């Protein structure tokens, strides 16, 4: 199993310069890694065998497997909870016509299984998209500004020169960072919209059964063994039916019903129950992150957050800086505080406060 995931370990690599927060990283690192890992896992035949194996008389097995993989299989949803062995052969597997009646059971076709790997990979791309936009808009600004100031072991002359450049940059470009900050805030909103949209698209992909999937599985686990109706058998059946039509030697139409085993659904049902809980948790955390972001538009919240990020800086110094800064200036200072050495950041903040005070009195 190690060889499957060794190629994607770099997705979890921690960047030396942080240009976002943990909520943002929950999307493009953790969730993206999970989606790519699941996508790769489902392609490993050495662990789960062929994705489909069909049993039918008078039709070559390979032809039947290919036909049913391409054209879908089906089950009868109303019989997924029927008694196995007496009423049905497998959950949802029975003749379409009710014995002694002309009515037919409602049939549900399953054709999602051939697209799960690609679908998960596309989801991973969508979870990375806000990160890609932010990296493009950010343009390496934070990395440039904190150059040589992120380590306590630095030459004094170089440190003083870099601090002077950084202080001069801020005093000259004060109130010019709002666009920078709002682009980041837009990416945070995009993260939230994306995770909600992914829940909706998975729901459509699985025939509108995903939104209630997790709650139904939890309810199923709490039922008594003899009376339980497994919702996973309905969404991810392990055994299905497939009908193959061909013309015989006399030109008459022949119909062959076969049973198809879907080994990958054993894994898929676990993957999507995990994703149900994971995506709901990510959506909730992202929603709380947006609420937090809205509070940063108030000066008292910005002052408190910058104070926690610069514990070595006096409250008076932080107050004097925040009072003169707009939300974009505060956001960039907050980003610098996450990447600069604490002592150097303290010295920079004190110099910045003095320069801003001098500029105000001129």
Can you describe this structure?
The protein is mostly helical and 362 residues long. It is built from 15 helices and five strands. The strands form two sheets. It has a three-stranded antiparallel beta sheet. The chain has a two-stranded antiparallel ribbon with strand order 2-3. Helix 5 runs antiparallel to helix 8 (178-205), helix 8 (178-205) runs antiparallel to helix 11 and helix 12 crosses helix 13. It starts with a helix and ends with a helix.
Question: What are the main properties of this structure?
Answer:
362 residues, mainly alpha, three-stranded antiparallel sheet, elongated, single chain, two-stranded antiparallel ribbon
How does the overall form come out from the CA principal axes?
Answer: elongated
Distance linking N and C termini: 67 Å
Regions with little confidence, pLDDT below 50 for 5+ residues: none
Mean pLDDT: 84
Major sheet details = 3 strands, antiparallel
- Rg (C-alpha, Å): 29 Å
Q: Count every beta strand, where a strand is a DSSP E run of 2 or more residues.
A: 5
């Amino acid at each position: 199993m190690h060889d499957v995931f060794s190629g994607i370990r770099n997705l979890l690599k921690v960047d030396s310069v942080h240009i976002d927060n943990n909520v943002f990283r929950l999307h493009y690192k953790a969730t993206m890694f999970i989606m790519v890992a699941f996508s790769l896992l489902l392609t490993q035949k050495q662990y789960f065998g062929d994705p489909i194996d069909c049993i039918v008389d008078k039709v070559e097995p390979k032809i039947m497997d290919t036909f049913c993989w391409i054209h879908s299989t089906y089950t009868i949803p109303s019989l997924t909870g029927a008694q196995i062995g007496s009423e049905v052969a497998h959950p949802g597997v029975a003749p379409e016509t009710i014995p002694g009646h002309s009515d037919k059971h409602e049939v549900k076709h399953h054709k999602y299984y051939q697209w799960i790997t690609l679908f998960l990979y596309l989801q991973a791309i969508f979870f990375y998209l806000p990160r890609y936009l932010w990296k493009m808009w950010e343009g390496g600004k934070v990395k440039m500004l904190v150059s040589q100031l992120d380590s306590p072991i630095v030459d004094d002359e170089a440190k003083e020169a870099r601090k002077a450049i950084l202080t001069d940059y801020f005093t000259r470009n004060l109130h010019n960072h709002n666009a920078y900050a709002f682009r980041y805030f837009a990416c945070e909103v995009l993260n939230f919209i994306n995770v909600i949209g992914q829940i909706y698209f998975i729901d459509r992909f699985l025939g509108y059964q995903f939104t209630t999937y997790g709650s139904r599985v939890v309810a199923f686990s709490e039922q008594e063994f003899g009376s339980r109706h497994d919702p996973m058998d309905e969404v991810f059946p392990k055994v299905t039916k497939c009908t193959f039509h061909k013309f015989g030697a006399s030109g008459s139409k022949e119909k062959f019903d076969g049973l198809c085993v879907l080994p990958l659904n054993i894994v898929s049902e676990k993957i999507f129950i995990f994703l149900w809980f994971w995506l709901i948790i990510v959506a909730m955390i992202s929603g709380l992150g947006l609420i937090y972001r809205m509070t940063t538009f108030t000066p008292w919240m910005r002052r408190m957050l910058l104070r926690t990020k610069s514990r070595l800086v006096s409250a008076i110094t932080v107050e004097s800086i925040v009072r003169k800064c707009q939300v974009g200036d505060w956001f960039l200072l907050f980003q610098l505080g996450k990447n600069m050495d604490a002592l150097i950041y303290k010295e920079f903040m004190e110099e910045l406060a003095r320069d801003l005070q001098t500029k105000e009195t001129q």
